[in-house]
From TrEMBL:
Family membership noted in the UniProt record: Belongs to the HMBS family.
Essential cofactor(s): dipyrromethane
Matching Pfam families: Porphobil_deam, Porphobil_deamC
UniProt cross-references to HAMAP family, sorted A to Z: Porphobil_deam
Pathway: Porphyrin-containing compound metabolism; protoporphyrin-IX biosynthesis; coproporphyrinogen-III from 5-aminolevulinate: step 2/4
Misc. remarks from the entry: The porphobilinogen subunits are added to the dipyrromethane group.
Protein name stated in the entry: Porphobilinogen deaminase
Length: 311
């Protein structure tokens, strides 16, 4: 492989995004010691609008649009995203070239006063703006009060520490990457809080016209993670998923077999449909669609139609 002379990574400016960009920068630098690998930090709409839930202001695209503009006009060669924040359909002209190895995929319970979710007294206020986390929490603990919590990881932890919430739920991956793993009081199992599609995995996006970059960036891909995320995104895509719908899916791969759990729920968790599929990793995306169909067969489409009515 000929070393490229220069690579520019577009990244959001939050501490987690910068950690991820620097991680990819270090990997590229190790692969191509002669290459000048730099990071272009950018603020996105998703970072600026902090007072309304993402589900109301337009969803995941808000976090990637500015980075895509930089890819389109050549200011950057690649963008590093949390896969969780990447929309199910990329705009024309962009493509994902690599999926980075997954960090811990679980949701984490963070609190200053309580060691476990089960210890929260009835009526306790829990902070999360994720409909996926809200529905799964409410299904198990209907008396908890869920309140909106936006902002980057540091902001969310600060709001917890200021006493606005008895506890908050965050992705373990972000906390671990930022060396804040000690804030985690309890890891919530992927069965009890099915993670977001792509949670914990990194995605590398490029301008689709830049075919020269595909082989250069191929070593960043972690094939097992890629297949699991492909299956999860197949599920979400089949259900027209975004963060406006309480759904989640989590796939694991053993040998050539993928096992995946997925759910769709009403926001209050009163209606909750879960299914599991197992199948060949070679047909990862189809497996995701199959999981979606199994849920639709049990009435997931009615739950989704109901949610459509609310929006
Ligand atoms: N929606 C924001 C976001 N995007 C990715 C992560 C965490 C890291 C990851 O899942 O890769 C987070 C924070 C959170 O959900 O707590």
């Amino acid at each position: 492989m000929n070393s490229p002379a220069k690579l520019v990574i577009a990244s959001r400016e939050s501490a987690l995004a910068m950690w991820q960009a620097k991680h990819i920068q270090a990997r590229l630098q190790a692969l191509y010691p002669q290459c000048d690998v730099s990071i272009l930090g950018m603020t996105t709409m998703g970072d600026q609008i902090l007072d309304s839930p993402l589900s109301r202001i337009g969803g995941k695209g808000l976090f990637v649009k500015e980075l895509e503009n930089a890819l389109a006009d050549g200011r950057a060669d690649l963008a590093v995203h949390s896969m969780k924040d990447v929309p199910m359909h990329l705009p024309e002209g962009f493509t994902l070239v690599a999926t980075g190895e997954r960090e811990d995929p679980r949701d984490a319970f963070v609190s200053n006063d309580y060691a476990r979710l089960e210890d929260l007294p009835a009526g306790s206020v829990v902070g999360t703006s994720s409909l996926r986390r809200q529905s799964q929490l409410q299904a198990r603990f209907p008396t908890l009060k869920i309140e909106s919590l936006r902002g980057n990881l540091q902001t969310r932890l600060r709001k917890l520490d200021e006493g606005q919430y008895a506890a908050i739920i965050l992705a373990a991956a972000g906390l671990i990457r930022l060396e804040l793993g000690h804030r985690i009081r309890q890891f919530i199992s992927p069965q009890e809080s099915i993670p977001a599609v792509g949670q914990g995995a990194l995605g590398i996006e490029i301008n689709a016209a830049r075919t020269d970059l595909k082989t250069i960036l191929a070593p960043l891909n972690h094939p097992d993670t890629e297949l699991c995320v492909l299956a999860e995104r197949g599920f979400s895509r089949a259900l027209a998923g975004s963060c406006t719908v309480p759904l989640g899916a989590y796939a694991t791969k053993q040998n050539d077999t993928i096992t995946m759990q997925g759910f769709v729920a009403s926001v209050d968790g009163q209606q909750m449909l879960k299914e599991t599929v197992t199948g060949s990793a070679a047909e990862a995306e189809k497996l995701g669609q199959q999981l979606a169909l199994q849920l639709v067969a049990r009435g997931a489409d009615k739950i989704l139609a109901l949610l459509d009515g609310i929006k």
